[in-house]
Amino acid sequence: MKVFFDTEFTGLHQDTTLISIGMIDEVGHTFYAEFGDFNHLQVDDWIQENVINKLKFHGKEGKGWCNCSGENPDLPDGKTEAYGHSLFIRECIEYWLSGYKKVELWSDCLSYDFVLFNQLWGHAFKIPNNVYYIPFDICTMFKLLNIDPDINREEFAGTLASAEKHNALWDAKVIRRCYQIMNKMLDCQAK
Q1: Would you list the domain boundaries of the chain?
Q2: Which one, out of 35, 73, 89, 120, has a CA that is 20 to 30 A from the CA of 64?
Q3: CATH assignment of 2-190?
Q4: pLDDT at 62 over 80
Q5: pTM of the model
Q6: Cα–Cα distance list, 106 to 38, 73, 85, 112, 177 (Å)
Q7: pLDDT tens track for 130-139
Q8: What angle do CA 77, 30, 40 make, to 5 degrees?
Q9: What whole-number distance in Å separates Cα of residue 107 and Cα of residue 173?
Q10: What whole-number distance in Å separates Cα of residue 123 and Cα of residue 95?
C-alpha cells in the first residue's frame, strides 16, 4: 500500500523537531498527529504564523485527541488523529500502519520528513517491519516527466489554494493527488 505523508517541523536545520505528521493511503484513509513535545525555542515567526497557528490541537491539550492504542481508535469518518508526546505518537503511527501488509512511503522533498520519521524509532532499522526502508519522492517523478520540480503543488494537483497549506495532512493529500496525476501520465507514456 502506498502511504503519502508529510511532516511539519521546527526548521531546516540538523536539530529540528517534529510538530505534526499527516498520512493518507491510496484509498483515502488518513492519520494525523501533533507532537506536544516539539522544541518551542526553535519556533520562529514564520513557523508560528504558517504552522503552529494552523494546528488542530495545539493550545487545546486534553481536548480532541484519541488514544490510538485503545479499543476502536478509528473515528467514524475513517480518520485517526492523535495529540501527545513523541513516544505516544510513534505508538499511534505503528498501530495505524499495522493495518497494512506492506507500506511504501511517498513524500515531497522528503529529506527531512524521512529522517524525522526514522528518528521516532531511534534508528532506520527500527521502523515497523511492514514499512519499506526506501522512501519515494514525487520530486523525482516531476523531474522524470520533465516538469519543473519547483512547480506549485496545489496548482498541479488542481486544488484551490487553501488556508490549510503547511498542515501536514493537507500537504499529504496534495502529494497524493500529484502522484495520482503523474502516475497516469507515466501510464500514458508507457502505452
Answers
A1: 2-190
A2: 120
A3: 3.30.420.10
A4: no
A5: 0.88
A6: 23, 24, 24, 13, 12
A7: 999 999 999 9
A8: 115
A9: 10
A10: 18
Give me the residue label for grid cell 495520482: 180
Q: What is the Cα–Cα distance from 51 to 17, expressed in whole angstroms?
A: 13
Using DSSP's 3-state secondary structure scheme, residue 72 falls into: coil
Strand partners, 9: 18
The span from the CA of 100 to the CA of 128, in Å, is 11
C-alpha cell at 163: 488556508
Joined together, the cell numbers standing for residue 138 give: 514525487
Please state the φ and ψ torsions of residue 77, each to the nearest 5 degrees: -90, 10
Relative to beta strand 18-25, strand 79-84 is unpaired
pLDDT digits (tens, 9 = 90+) for 65-87: 554 544 444 433 445 888 888 99
